[in-house]
């Protein structure tokens, strides 16, 4: 973990801020590129995880495509220099102006999540005099065995079109003249640590693709989404996620002929290279005996613990004094759920100490808000120190 080694340098920066280890980001990108090249797989970066300009410039150097979830994310990717032909755009509710923009950019595919959306893309493409490449985002009804708040591929989920509905409307979909159905897309959820789940996913995809092609569809690619989890518990043990295992599972279980296989990784690319650095403002003990460390960050910088009950490992990077005391680390926001973690073992923690909240590079800054009119946090990059 970078911050522990450069804690004295960090003291001078206004807290809270995100610290990014760009060397680790580069190693992670090297790994994903190396491992995916073994099978000819194509990797998109899910820009929702973190759209920081400095990080995007690095990610672009490694030739990844982009997965985006809104018109503004698409615009951001295009402005950051990513080739529109390598961009996919998913999202359960796309506004007409967002669809018009995507159509005008000629992206790799709009991943459509309802029959109605396919019809609207067809109509808007006709208006623009275009034929738009789309993929069918299919809900495969798979339990990804992750936090229920972040699963996306179970039957009842708002994401994707049910396979049955695609079958029912197959003839109608094929009759649309201004969309070209070039792919199948699915994404079963995020922070998946039990990789055998992806075996089930592959088996379902095999059936879906075979049956739909039997009905006359012809797909150029299958995009199996993202979801590879990271080690929030002990990030030092696994700074780079296990891309090799996931690719090997997909290689061994996906049976779709020579079609392109695409992935959309967010968390696994950027989570571990980011830490949220925050300063201890006050210590106090509740009437019930809980020792609180009140820090100057809050759910406005990192909402994952408050929103999903997610765990992030926390360390006092400026104290050397061991203690058996346990701390509940709370933020400044006017919300009772604004708690980073309870009963944390930290070195003796005093006003002014810096804490690192680790593995915060994904869905940290990109989900930050200005609640309580907090300022948005800054960013410090290891290659600029
Ligand atoms: C459609 C889609 N693709 C890719 C991702 C990226 O997922 P992850 O950050 O888990 O790799 C998400 C987020 O879960 C998503 O909804």
Chain-wise SSE layout:
Elements: H1 2-5, H2 7-10, E1 17-20, H3 22-37, E2 42-46, H4 53-61, E3 65-68, H5 71-79, E4 87-89, H6 96-105, E5 109-112, H7 115-128, E6 132-139, E7 161-162, H8 163-168, H9 170-175, E8 179-185, H10 197-214, E9 221-223, H11 243-253, E10 260-265, H12 267-270, E11 274-285, E12 291-295, H13 304-308, E13 314-316, E14 326-330, E15 339-345, E16 354-357, E17 378-381
Parallel strand pairs: 1-17, 2-3, 2-10, 3-4, 4-5, 5-6, 6-7, 6-8, 8-9, 9-10, 12-14
Antiparallel strand pairs: 1-11, 11-12, 11-16, 13-16, 14-15
Helix pairs in contact: 6-7, 10-11
The structure holds pyridoxal-5'-phosphate.
GO molecular function: diaminopimelate decarboxylase activity
Cofactor: pyridoxal 5'-phosphate
Domain Orn/DAP/Arg decarboxylase 2 N-terminal: 41-271
Overall average residue pLDDT: 97
- Assembly type: single chain
Number of H- or I-type helical stretches: 13
Bound molecules: pyridoxal-5'-phosphate
Biggest β-sheet strands, sense, barrel? 8 strands, mixed
| SSE pattern | HHEHEHEHEHEHEEHHEHEHEHEEHEEEEE
State the low-pLDDT regions, or none. Answer: none
Named CATH architecture of the largest domain:
Alpha-Beta Barrel
Number of strands: 17
Instruction: Tell me the span between the first and last alpha carbons.
Output: 16 Å
Question: What's the CATH H-level homologous superfamily of the largest domain?
Answer: Alanine racemase
**According to CATH, what is the topology of the largest domain?**
TIM Barrel
């Amino acid at each position: 973990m970078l911050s522990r080694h450069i804690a004295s340098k960090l003291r001078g920066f206004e807290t809270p801020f995100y610290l990014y280890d760009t060397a680790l980001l580069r190693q992670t990108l090297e790994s994903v590129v190396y491992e995916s090249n073994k099978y000819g797989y194509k990797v998109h970066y899910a820009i929702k995880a973190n759209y920081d300009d400095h990080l995007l410039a690095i990610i672009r150097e490694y030739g990844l495509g982009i997965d985006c979830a809104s018109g503004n994310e698409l615009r951001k990717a295009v402005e950051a220099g990513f080739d529109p032909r390598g961009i996919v755009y998913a999202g359960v509710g796309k506004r007409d102006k967002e669809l018009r923009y995507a159509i005008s950019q000629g992206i790799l595919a709009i991943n459509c999540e309802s029959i109605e959306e396919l019809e609207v893309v067809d109509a808007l493409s006709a208006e623009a005099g275009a034929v738009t490449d789309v993929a069918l985002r299919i809900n495969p009804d798979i339990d990804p065995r992750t936090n229920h708040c972040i699963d996306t591929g179970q039957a009842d989920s708002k994401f994707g079109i049910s396979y049955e509905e695609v079958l029912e409307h197959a003839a109608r979909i094929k009759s649309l003249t201004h969309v070209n159905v070039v792919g199948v897309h699915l994404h079963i959820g995020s922070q998946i640590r039990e990789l055998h789940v992806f075996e089930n996913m592959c088996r379902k995809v095999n059936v879906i693709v075979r049956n739909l092609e039997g009905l006359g569809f012809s797909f150029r690619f299958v995009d199996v989404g993202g979801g590879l989890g990271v080690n929030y518990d002990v990030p030092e043990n696994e700074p780079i996620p296990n891309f090799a295992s996931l690719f090997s599972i997909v290689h061994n279980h996906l049976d779709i002929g020579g079609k392109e296989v695409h992935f959309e990784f967010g968390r696994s690319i950027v989570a571990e290279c980011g830490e949220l650095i925050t300063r201890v403002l006050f210590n106090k003990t509740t009437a019930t005996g809980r020792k609180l460390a009140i820090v100057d960050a809050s759910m406005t910088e990192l909402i994952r613990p408050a929103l999903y009950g997610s765990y992030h490992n926390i360390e006092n990077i400026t104290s050397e004094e061991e203690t058996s005391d346990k701390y509940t680390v709370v933020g400044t926001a006017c919300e009772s759920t604004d708690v980073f973690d309870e009963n944390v073992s930290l070195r003796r923690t005093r006003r002014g100490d810096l804490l690192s909240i680790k593995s915060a590079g994904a869905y940290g800054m990109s989900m930050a808000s200005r609640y309580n009119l907090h300022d948005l946090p800054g960013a410090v990059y290891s290659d600029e120190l």
